Amino acid sequence: MRIARFSYNEVPQYAFVQKDETDGKDYLVALEGHPLSPQGVKPTGKRYALDADGIRLLSPVIPSKVLGLAKNYDNRSDEELSASSEVLHSAQDMVIFSKPSTSVIGPDDPIVIPAGDHNMNFEPEVAVVIGKIARRVSVDHAMEYVLGFTCVNDVTLTDCAGEDPMWTRAKGFDTSCPLGPWITTELSWNDARISFKLNGENVPEAQGTTARLIHNIPEQIAAISSFTTLLPGDVILTGTPYAAGSLHPGDEAIVTVDGIGSLRNVVVSE
């Protein structure tokens, strides 16, 4: 199931995204209610084409907080992995950062480089959307608290990261957390393929799979929920296969996760 948040003539609402068997196109089936509420949702009977006038996809969720893991992707080759005895799964080794809710934007929203001369990187990732209150959950039960998954570009100001050991400015500025295009409730999360296009060209270094995460998704949920309560709608950024690609004004950035879809944003100057 795919759950989108969209606006029709500037009125936000939720929808199921369904493929029409006749023309093969995706349509928004408008919903009454909120997918994270105990009452759930029900169809309104209205359906919209994704490219219909007045339709705009929004960030699929507005989280109370966004938490992410840095340095959580093993880029070693298969040969290097097989030759190494190094174990990288200690929870004490997790590097966890946060982004405020004001950093979140949706599909096609502009990524705004803050005023000043900044170096900005793209980081394509799978994002986890929490579906119910999670506090001190175990690894074995962690996935029971997940609503679904979406694409994210964990945009980072690398010059600020070097100046600020907490990365608050580097990762928390407005528009630094594009999410979308929707939430997918079913995904092969332990081997989801990630890719990235910059100005229409594939970036081979930015391709990867969640199978190469050092700390997998259940481990991340368990570790994060051990010190902070995760609320419905909260988002976890799981780790990127590539954190060295630069973005500049005018660039088009597209994150794709197989089984979810593609998230597109364009970079502009403040």
TrEMBL record:
Domain Rv2993c-like N-terminal: 1-60
Domain of life (superkingdom): Bacteria
GO MF entries: acetylpyruvate hydrolase activity; metal ion binding
Ranges where the Fumarylacetoacetase-like C-terminal domain occurs: 65-268
UniProt entry keywords in alphabetical sequence: Metal-binding
InterPro entries associated with the record: Fumarylacetoacetase-like_C, Fumarylacetoacetase_C_sf, Rv2993c-like_N
Name of this protein: FAH family protein
Organism (species): Gardnerella vaginalis
